[in-house]
Amino acid sequence: MTNAGPKHGRTVSINVSKLTAAMNHRGLSVEQLKELADVSTGTVNNLLAGKSVYRTTASQVAAALGTTLDVLMNASTPIGGASTVHEYLVSDVLSDWITASNGLKFQLCRLRHLELDRQARGKRFDLRDMTTDEEQRCRTWIKRHPNVCGTLQDHPNIVRNLTAFHDPVESFYWVIDEWIDGEPLQRTLGRQPFEPLVVKELLLDVARGLHGLHEKGIVRRELTPATITIRNSDGRAILTEFELAKLIDRGPTVSTAEWPVDPYRAGEADADDVDVRADIYSWARIGVHAAFGELPEIGSEKSALEDTLLPSSVQSCLTKAASVFRSERHESMNEVLPIVEVWK
């Protein structure tokens, strides 16, 4: 029999010294922590007194402090210190907890192999407070990333996955990719217009990565500057984060909940009949942003591109690809790649 009931009914207590140290590190009072964590003053005071609270409540407090419940409960792990997971050392936590469009909650970490001189990028997903059915559904989404990477493991514009596993010690699900010495495109996009040659290389790299996915029957679906890493050594754009990828003709693959608004995502991206034209739309919106220096309002891409140094053929290509109506976009990456490739 499937147990569909919640698993967060049990209570936990945390290390008072760790909680106090975390609050001092963030400069937070009881009232400030209460507001950040969206809990009551009594809850914070109970924790400071060493009393037990529900696990979900304690997790909210830990997240508000920029750490995890496991760290606050473990007296041997210093705040901000390192821990190990399988053969990796968690050397640095790179982000706060992030909630994806489909509700998956994850955190990015820099890892170092315990035996080999090798770094890796880890995403740890917190599934502990889900029902059994919810956890199984989310594991299916999470495993889509290593499956997609494995299908295109030798593609120069697709991140290489190393492994994925459930860690019984911390109760997180880990996805571990190769470490790319670079930064997300979103960190540089919008500061000023990219040089035309840089725009061309960005458009080609992303288009080639998408073309590789599409040839394997995969739609990226939610391509944003945050999911494109620019490698420092050669400036190559590498696509990452495939948990929301759509495997064509495999049935529904995303949450039924409404997705948050994203200015790079095609309007039909969260529908089950999504196809490669959703990726073409995102590709164009990102290209327009890079060329223009800011992201224009939806539907005003043509006028924005007229103020750039892009060839008229590329301007027309991006304008068509960014059409709100997918029937007006290009049918495949095979139509847009030659236009960008012949750009002198």
> Class by helix and strand content?
alpha+beta
The CATH homologous superfamily of the largest domain is named Transferase(Phosphotransferase) domain 1
CATH architecture grouping of the largest domain: Orthogonal Bundle
CATH fold assignment of the largest domain: Transferase(Phosphotransferase), domain 1
Q: Give the DSSP E fraction (strand runs of 2 or more residues).
A: 15-25%
Q: Please report the distance between the alpha carbons of the first and last residues.
A: 64 Å
Question: Could you describe the largest sheet, including whether it forms a barrel?
Answer: 7 strands, antiparallel
Domain HTH cro/C1-type: 19-72
Protein name: Protein kinase
GO molecular function: ATP binding; DNA binding; protein serine/threonine kinase activity
InterPro entries: Cro/C1-type_HTH, Kinase-like_dom_sf, Lambda_DNA-bd_dom_sf, Prot_kinase_dom, Ser_Thr_kinase
Description:
The protein is an alpha+beta fold and 344 residues long. It folds into 3 domains: 11-73, lambda repressor-like DNA-binding domains (434 Repressor (Amino-terminal Domain), Orthogonal Bundle); 83-178, Phosphorylase Kinase, domain 1, CATH 3.30.200.20; 182-341, Transferase(Phosphotransferase) domain 1 (Transferase(Phosphotransferase), domain 1), CATH 1.10.510. The protein contains 11 helices and 14 strands. 37% of the residues are buried. Mean pLDDT is 86; it is low at 1-9, 75-81 and 249-256. Residues 73-344 form the Protein kinase domain. Residues 19-72 form the HTH cro/C1-type domain. This is Protein kinase.
